[in-house]
Fold:
Amino acid sequence: MRARSDRGEPLAGLHVCFLAGTLGQGGAERQLFCMLEQLQRAGLRVTLLCLTRGEFWERPIRELGVRCVWVGQKQSRLWRLVQICKEIRRARPDIVQSQHFYTNLYAAFAGRALGLPAIGAIRNNVFGEIRANGSVLGRLCLHLPRHLAANSSTGIQNAVFLGVPREKLWLVPNAVDIDRFRPETVKSSGPFQILGVGRMHPQKRFDRVLRVLAQLRSRTSAPIRAVLVGDGPLRASLEKQAADLNLLDCVEFRSAVADIAPLYRESDALILASDHEGTPNVILEAMASELAVVATAVDGVPALITSGQTGFLTASGDEEGLANALLRLMEEPALRRHLGAQARTFVATNHAPSNVLKSLEGLYNAALGLGRV
Structure:
């Protein structure tokens, strides 16, 4: 690839080999698709190596014209690393880039073995990612890549706190397609519908969401409905909790859906009660859909929502605060519409796909030794 010169000429012809752990229906995978699409439109070449196959995003990525290679035939880390090195040598890229934190080690070792710049990923707040991978492997995933792309300023700050030099870190914000996630012209009448989207995993605190719904229901006679979308290890226990709280007549659990955009349009508010986050796609998508958002003020979330202007924020454990915000949205439809309109404007300005491309260009110049731009 011809790198950008000091005069700011555009990049063209760079070949980037991405490494992904999975292509399931997660936020990191959605952002991977967005990046691949933007890079190809800009004239860059991309190859994708993945530890899994046959998952949700594989077909859309192949339809972009991206070569996808399965490198997870065996569980052995050493075997996978050898295969990854073989495929990278065959592809002959200019840069190797990991899309998941737990694949950073593969990218870093392969880059060193083949003399290529390697970029790692921080998709959350770092601390949770290290815990999930174990202290030793987690810290290696953080420190071995020569550069790291983070999707939140909080992730960058936490990495610096853990000893990563600031010059190794680059903010690549999540993007959302505002044409796909657009508001409904006229919402249908009916109960006030609250939407929750995410993995049924301890991080997302759907147990807290259910308690908030029970509290909200006890404080209003107005009809409410909640749709909780996602799969995961806690699904059965959450359904039991909903039954214990007598919520089954107003709470619906749904598995992950291929197209969630219509659900945003038919809902009145989104709730996110996580303990930690990076830059949640679900919030960006809801904001683009002009859906009022109520969320816990954790990690990267306050960078998206200004409480009272583009949504409402509460402290992490403040269930009463979450219920109060939802009740206010129920009682003040004009406020709900105002917050939604402001939120869409914010997303269109700060999280358009073109912003991601600009950040990646700067990151790639830095990885190739051309300095920050």
Summary: Residues 192-350 form a domain with the Rossmann fold fold (CATH 3.40.50.2000). The first strand starts at residue 15 and ends at 20.
